[in-house]
Each structure stands twice: as C-alpha cells, then as structure tokens.
C-alpha cells in the first residue's frame, strides 16, 4: 500500500490540457494583480513601476499607507510582522477612504480586495486617511 503512495502526486491526476489551463488561469490572475498594484501606486502619486521592484514595493506601500516607508522593517520581526501587516492593511484602507470591513477583506481575501482597490473608483486621501 505504501508503494502506491510514493507514486501519488497532484500532477499525476491532471492531464496536460488541464495543467495548461491552470497555468494560463494563474498567469491571468498574476497579471491582473500586478496591474492592480500598479494602479494603487499610481493613485497614491507614486510611480506604478515601484510596485514591480521587490522590497522597494513594500517600502513604498508602507509610505503610501503609513506615511513612513522605513516601517517596512517591522515586517522582518517575527510576531510583530503579523500585527504590523494587519495595521498596514487598515491604514491602506483608510488611505483610500475605506473602512474596517474593507480591511477585513484585505486580510482574508487579499487578491480580490487588491483588485477592488486598484480598479475601483476610490481616491487616495493620504497616509492613514489624513489629508495630504
């Protein structure tokens, strides 16, 4: 019975057509999320290209939501990173005039709510929802 488990993996359950469909679907979602982040950065007066550069995009997101980009270093500290990420989502929501329920959406369904924030009609107010 254990011999059968060695040969078992998820890829063996799908044929090539199904795997290519999943790959294309994943690529479409990734491209949409990249465009949404680009639009979020652009709405906030930052260059959209900044969303493409690893680490710098997190710095810029902290600058957009919190006003201080260097706070992204808090994300490197265990336990603190979870708390700060929740705070960052809340401040990002406030920065675009959204409330607590939108923050919950960013926490539990981040891809969907990132698309809503990027492609929706919300305007950037300023860090933490304070006027620029």
Write structural notes for this entry.
With 132 residues, this protein is mainly α. The protein has one domain. It is 60% helix and 0% strand. The protein is built from six helices and no strands. The chain has helices at residues 2-6, 16-43, 56-66, 80-95, 100-108, 110-119. Helix 3 crosses helix 4 (80-95) and helix 5 crosses helix 6. The longest helix is centred in the N-terminal third of the chain and has 28 residues, at 16-43. The chain is globular. 22% of the residues are buried.
Low-confidence parts lasting 5 or more residues at pLDDT below 50? none
Return the domain count. 1
Q: Note the beta-strand portion.
A: under 5%
Question: Would you list the SSEs in sequence order as H and E?
Answer: HHHHHH
Overall average residue pLDDT: 90
**Helix percentage:** 55-70%
Please report the total strand number as a whole number.
0
User: Whole-Å distance between the termini?
Assistant: 65 Å
Rounded to the nearest angstrom, the radius of gyration is 19 Å
Any descriptors?
single chain, 132 residues, mainly alpha, 6 helices, globular
């Amino acid at each position: 019975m254990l011999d059968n488990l060695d040969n078992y993996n998820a890829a063996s359950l799908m044929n090539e057509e199904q795997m290519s469909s999943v790959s294309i679907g994943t690529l479409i979602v990734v491209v949409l999320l990249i465009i949404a982040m680009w639009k979020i950065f652009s709405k906030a007066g930052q260059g959209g290209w900044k969303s493409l550069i690893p680490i710098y995009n997190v710095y810029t997101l902290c600058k957009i939501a919190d006003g201080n980009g260097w706070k992204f270093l808090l994300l490197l500290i265990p336990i603190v990173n979870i708390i700060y990420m929740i705070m960052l989502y809340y401040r990002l929501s406030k920065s675009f005039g959204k409330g607590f329920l939108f923050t919950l959406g960013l926490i539990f369904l981040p891809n969907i709510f990132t698309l809503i924030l990027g492609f929706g009609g919300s305007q950037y107010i300023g860090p933490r929802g304070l006027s620029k």
